[in-house]
Amino acid sequence: MKQGSVVAKIKAMLPFLLCIVLDFYLLPLLINSTGMGMLLLLVLIPLICLACSVVYGLKHSFNILYIALVVLLFFPTIFIFYNASAWVYTVAYGIIALIGNAIGMIFYKRNSAVELFERSKALDPEQSNVDMFITSEKEFVAYRVAKAAADEKPEEAKIYPEYWELHLEKAEVPENKNDYFDNDLSPAFFLDISNTDKGLCYDCTLNLSEDESEAMAGFRARLVQRGFDADGSAWKAYFLMYFIGYMPSLLKIIETDTEDDACSFFVYSRDAFYMLLEAVSTAVRALYAVTPPQETPEIEYLPEMYEDDYYPDALVDHVKAELSAVVDFIMSGVHTYEEIQLKFDDCVKAINDLQEMFGEHDSEIETIARDSIGDTVKRILEAFGIDIDVETAIRERDW
Question: How does DSSP classify residue 247?
Answer without folding.
Answer: -
